User: Fold this.
Amino acid sequence: MVAEGHEIGIHGWIHELNSILPQEAERDLMMRSGGCPERISGVRPVGFRTPSWDFSRHTLEIAKEMGLLYDSSLMSDEDCYEPAARWRACRSRGVSGGMGPR
Assistant:
């Protein structure tokens, strides 16, 4: 996959709920989830999406310690954080969930 230009990211070790884990357990699971793809692909992941979109007060601190560059847990697309006016326009047309067609 990496050879085809795909990025390998982190999405947890066992789809854990970070908000209920002790800090050391969360750290251990995040470190495991980062090390495995690197061993297999030869490329260190630089991004992550938290399992179940679940953050603890330590999640971003651990991500920074791991050298991760971004988090995609808010699940935006390449146009991150679209303008509020566009969101309101989609909502007024009854488009729910995503931002609607471009």
Notes: Helices lie at 23-41, 59-65, 84-92.
